[in-house]
Amino acid sequence: MIRVLLIVATIIALENQGDAHFIPYSSPNDAVAFWPLNDKHFLNDTSGNDNHAQDIWGNVTLIPENARGRRCGAYEFRGNPSSYLFFPNNGAFDTKKSTTIMAWVYPYGNAGPIFFFDPNTTVDGVQLRQILNGTELYARVIFTKRNTVPVLPIDIKVPALYEWYHWAVVYDFDNHTGYAYLNGNFIASIVLTPGEIATQADAQAGAALYPQEWFNGLLTCIQIYNRTLDIYEIHTAAHRPECECNVGGDPHITTLDGRDYSFQGICWYTLVKDCSSTNPQFEITADLAPRDDIGDQIRTRAVAINVTVGDESVVVDQNNVPSESDDSLKNINIVHEGDKAILTFELKDTTFKVFWTGKKHFFNIEFTGDYYRGKMCGLLGNADGDAKNDFQKPNGVIVKDPIEFGESWKVQGKQC
């Protein structure tokens, strides 16, 4: 049924078999509503618009400090009608046109509302919720229109139960298109009828009268913007200091198996390479350098990326200028799309793509194929499907400390 809906709704979908990110430092700071929902900010709206959340029945529990890995906690919803948070809307987050809404979600398994506008009516407001399709859990967004014209949903299969996932939804008023992102990756889009969306009412998380479903799990870091955020801003907003309680932790890296961590390296580091033999068939490295605009606190960013395949190597700087012309390269293909340089190469049954946006110091690495799964190593892990063993040093030892792990992958002999 989900597949039929996606086809009928003219959804464009993209699924990556392997994906890793470097998240730059600067985060968007213009949220019209922002509830970190943790033990540092509690139920407060930190956007300055004073739409503080309310636990009407006292049936939502703050799990302090380490809530399933969240450093500064999260709020737990019990999966019953009185376990919800109420968000009064004084008009500040009535975005009505373009909007971005996001949250970190830790599901226990049942369907239920994540963020629901006008929750006590017959679903007349914009809805973010989880649904059950058979035994599988999906995240669903419905960009309900103000004129109550029915619209089709975007459904995204949740990666796994009892794991955190980051969900962001975007509505672009100008092209009346909705977008969905899961863990920072674009997943799907849907073209809808033109018009303003129904965000004028109050909202709730955890419960809604219609449908009568109650979310069971953890929520934290709910944010609303009155514009469309791009993929870079979604990445950084997901890791805002207010949510992670670690102001000095940027930049953020997500491994190929989805493990997030922060590391402040200076010089060249191996992101990922072939570890199936003593003579790697490929290696991707990045040059990390301190920012020059943040005072005494050291924070680094990627300023160049290097791709080596066999005996062939090319460096692309922060202006997206390659050290070698595309004509002189046999194994590596380089194309420019807008502000991105895309480097592609193929080995065995696998295609690798490196998306580099130099001016934003952002990279994204994707691969499709099976041969190199579990045979890679570097800051982006081994891509074996198990995020728990990603912190493996060159000598094979698995460590817990991200700094020890990161420094072990510093490229020796490079001038910085």
From TrEMBL:
Alphabetized UniProt keyword annotations: Signal
Record has Signal as a keyword: yes
Stretches assigned to the VWFD domain: 243-416
Keyword Cytoplasm set for record: no
Signal peptide from the UniProt entry: 1-20
Gene3D superfamilies reported in the protein's UniProt record: 2.60.120.200
Entries under PANTHER family matching the protein: CUB DOMAIN-CONTAINING PROTEIN (PTHR47635), LAMG-LIKE JELLYROLL FOLD DOMAIN-CONTAINING PROTEIN (PTHR47635:SF2)
Protein name: Uncharacterized protein LOC102806351
